[in-house]
């Protein structure tokens, strides 16, 4: 008997020792692209029956050390990083050079993924047009030196880092660099004027828009940074299927695809794991998994005709931060407030004009929605060929496409002056019509600075901004309530040395407004019941305000939780909500018990 037991233990121990020791450890640096790619590798490994975990090893140096110490088995690295840190030439290295380098360290370069995540120097499009900035070398013309925003790890990289870059191009800093590891923070710094330029990655999601321009690198300072997978040689031996997993990703991740995936995480606030899993499922590389425990999907409504891409991205980031357990989806329609009111959406992105119905001299406030958090401001841009025209709205005026909020605002302004739009179109088309004499002016509500306006004004120096005061109709009191007097700062656009007086309005995240003494918010089993237009709780309102990058509260003219009526209604309905919550839960539990009774009751004999 003892011999049989001993033999059994030997077999068990032998089986246990014959397989891979521990899970596959996938390393990831601390930015979205790395996390997305690491989750892809881990999910593919799990789809093959392997155990896999993520190891966040911070920056390049930390991850390289973790690989060499055996704390990480596999990770995504970049060819330029391997070249510079390995002492190879800064540019033009053959793939074989990197493979040989890693093999000498006990690692293997398993293959390229298909995208190039090179470093780039970016500036605001409008400022590039104003100062004719085309190449990195042009930054030497900035008076007083360069103010730059950069990732902290880039500031200390040798070879291809910030200070070698400055020396190579003969640039000097006006002040210490601003260190921001999140791309959104770096781009916000340059767009708000805190920095002149920012260090970017070619696959950053924010670069898909038109607000930033990448400067040329005429001295070929930056080496190529082809994304590829590197693994420890012993991990490849333990997991022979690892090379096959990497091969599944090859030729599926070009630079445009990687930029789009990064945008979902960086700009929209989606979790990197969710972005990775969705890509793999869409590509047919993994099967649909089981249901995960998460709350119901949250819909964010937007008007189908509005140009609010930047504001919508800010709203998405704020909503996902305020509701971290919810899956958030943007839905577009012709009536976003209607979607809020009937429960088709929980939140909406709205310009101030959407809270008012009618137009002209007496717009009425729509009481079905309330403004919660500010995500941006748009400003009226009036451009004419003649500078300082005595009648700014005279002649043929072009506005944005019909149906958009910006077109409605411009139309209301013209109606107050007794006029109608002469043409509807996109900014580039309207400015071309103005330049060719088919229009006398262009009236557009947009952000400052607007890239299309900046590029057009740089090409057409005979076009000028015209002041527009807060009485568009020329009579005191004849104002649109959601518009406030503001200025376009001097130098925001080419050939604009002075500030321009104009008007503007907020863009906000909105929720359903409380109706008739308060609306109930319920919990427990009754929460599964569909209810239309439930207002946000105080905690949800506070969470959205805290998550928004614009800390200003909504304009008092907009219905909001901070208005007197809104505050009283929200507070006064609390007792009613508690009573209704209790009643609904009792009814639901009673209904469920009745169903159980029917199922368990013995069947009647015939």
UniProtKB/TrEMBL annotation:
<keyword id="KW-1133">Transmembrane helix</keyword>
<feature type="transmembrane region" description="Helical">
    <location>
        <begin position="583"/>
        <end position="600"/>
    </location>
</feature>
<keyword id="KW-0812">Transmembrane</keyword>
<keyword id="KW-0472">Membrane</keyword>
<protein>
    <submittedName>
        <fullName>Glycine betaine ABC transporter substrate-binding protein</fullName>
    </submittedName>
</protein>
<dbReference type="Pfam" id="PF04069">
    <property type="entry name" value="OpuAC"/>
</dbReference>
<feature type="domain" description="ABC-type glycine betaine transport system substrate-binding">
    <location>
        <begin position="23"/>
        <end position="281"/>
    </location>
</feature>
<dbReference type="InterPro" id="IPR007210">
    <property type="entry name" value="ABC_Gly_betaine_transp_sub-bd"/>
</dbReference>
